[in-house]
What does this fold into?
Amino acid sequence: MSKKMIISITAAVVIALSLSAVSTAAMPPLPEGALYIYGGYADVTGDGVVDEVYLIARRAQADSDFMSEHGLLVIEGKEGKQLLNWLGPESAAYPGTITFGKLDIGSSVDMLIDLPSGGSGGITTAMPVSMEGGTLRIMADLYALNDGPAVDMLVSDGYKMVAKYEGIDFTIDLLRGAAKDDEGTYGGIFDENGRKVGTLKPVMDPVGSTELTDVNNDGISELVTYRSIWAVYHANAVAVARTVWGWEQDAIKPRFVSVKPLFTPEDYASYLSSVKAADPAEAMKQALDKYVAAFSAASPYWRYEAFLVYRDYASAVAQKINEALPSTGTADQAAMQKVYQLADKLAPVGLGIFYTGEGELLAIPDPKFQLKNFEKYIQRDAVEYLMLEEVEVYDIWAMDGALNIQQEEVGNRLHDWEYFLQSFPGSAFERYAMQQYVAKLAAFILGIDNTPNFSYSDGTLNPGVMASLEKYVREYGNTPSGQTVAMAIGIMKEGNGKLNQGLIDRIIALIPKPTVQGEKTEK
It folds into this structure.
């Protein structure tokens, strides 16, 4: 039997994994005309037992993506009682989301419901709610939360705006670093010398983004809102107001407002492209320092997008290093000593040099470093991805066409990547996760080139292969991968312990097929 019979999974492939393949728990019956929007599990009633939580909605029109109203359906974990609360006209929006966290000192887990209503620039209604004791309670004045607090904004000579809140001044450059108003945005407002000669009233939008975070590390989350500030016309955003809200006696109220100059992920990409450091370690240090300075207090979406920019830049720097790295098979001692010195220099700034087989050394962005430095800034899918990537980078599963890990560990990694895909559909990291999913699924069932799960000479299955596959089906039989493995087992049994080309081809046909797909960069 030729090696060519086995599927080669050493090359990266991309698949389109349908959301319809994702296994989900059965949902309870919904009210007539209601749609399931979002869900999760938390003790929202405060009785010590985890509840099922469903965000539901009614369409404004039969074919509309806009919802006339959202509602909360809670299934009590203790008694199974269903608690349904519609959230009123304030919840009219495009499909919303729920973030769970404690917003007061009560016994329950509270919820922040974000309801994107669209509008110019993207407006989101933030609705913090409690279901403690089984009763719905809105935890803030929604109008004050989404349109306040007020910030005084005064424009002065030199294209300057001063934002004032409770005695604190924040100075904003309306030209955003430019030497002059080349585009004429402020024509008639400032003269050629920058002296203010006209009237300009900057405008602050309603809330565009929110998050829950424990600002003072007391175990109770604060609610943080972000609002865009623009001048002259809406697309000319100049600053962002960040407001920290916290529980005060009987409601969530504002604690502090800061106003920062606008600096977008696109601005960050432009900055990185301008970095001229010849030393890759210095370039990576500048990239991290700028990220922290510009985005540590930015909205969650911008932090996420800027992190993707950082990763692209780190990969580009690593690629430049790789062009100069020698092969371990041909490098002399002096050349390898330089590699060791370079590795020591790069490690503190987030690049590692790893041996990847066949004499090849590769500089790779270090996921462990990224977890340490970015975890508090990025969204959950990015954190989970980095945790999985760390395993793949530090414990390479295949090298020189052979498995470095046992079949059961391949199955564990298969399940982990599948769980990621199910948990975070549409993630910016979906493409790589799909590559890993397909590679691990094929390797788990059939092995890889130099370590197949059967004999190349007569097709006999290796000892323990069927036991590992059957164990996986027992544990994960309700998942897409578990169902694929179960079908592969059925085909294998037809061969009475041996595989031939026809059986192998049928098994390969079960593996999701790669599709041509561009790099996914959108969140």
Notes: The CA atoms of residues 460 and 498 lie 4 Å apart. Residues 31-139 form one domain. The two ends are 46 Å apart (CA to CA). The longest helix spans residues 300-322.
